[in-house]
């Protein structure tokens, strides 16, 4: 059978979409260039001889890591405290996030069954959503600075900071997840005399339990990382120990603490991934 030379000659020799990709790449650079200028972003400074020399001396101070038994015992104690701060903070955040999310969910409003929420219910929902915005708008680091002034240095400030900040995050996401699902079973229960809590437990929760649980576990993993950062402002845990070692210019201690923190985050990531997989 003879080959169709005309057809084979029409086979494209380059990606037909290259022009479009080139256009969007140029468009992105045009948008990003003013941002780089405004932020004085100059990454090439990292490659200057002076910067490389400073970086080399800084990294050399990390070697060798400090592995004395007494110090490792302290590190493990602080690592456990870091996990405890994150877990306690998330637990308190859930106590606030769940009721706030239920109040902010329109499908659980009995007055909305007629098509339009009552003014009082609409105002309450607006206030709750405003509170959630306030809680998550203030970074946990700022909350920690406030609570360190109020309750002093230690884990209490870290727990309260995570609780408030993450209550806003969890409440907002919970409300959006509940409203994005099928609301007809919820409305049917409400029309037949069920309370809002019953409608939530028997209609909304079963269909959204996996997504809600998965996000909660993910936020717990994020809280572990946040608790380390909060330690730099005196909120306890590994972060406070890292800050203390850096101020004493003890690179070996910092290296050990960073290695333990990396292992801690890896373990939390694996555990949360396993939990999310089991919930699916």
Q: What gyration radius follows from the Cα positions, in whole Å? A: 27 Å
Total separate domains: 1
Using the alpha-carbon principal axes, give the shape: globular
- CATH architecture annotation name: Orthogonal Bundle
Estimated helix fraction = over 70%
What is the CATH C-level name?
A: Mainly Alpha
- Summing up helix and strand content along with how strands pair, one would put the structural category as mainly alpha
How widely separated are the two ends?
Answer: 54 Å
CATH level 4 superfamily: MetI-like
Profile the largest sheet.
none
Range of strand content: under 5%
- Write down the CATH topology: MetI-like fold
- Written as H for each helix and E for each strand, in order along the chain, the element string is HHHHHHHHHHH
Number of strands: 0
3D structure, described in words:
The chain has 280 residues and is mainly α. It has a single domain, classed as Orthogonal Bundle (MetI-like fold). It is 76% helix and 0% strand. It is built from eleven helices and no strands. Helix 6 packs antiparallel against helix 7. The longest helix is centred in the N-terminal third of the chain and has 36 residues. It is globular, with a radius of gyration of 27 Å. The mean pLDDT is 80.
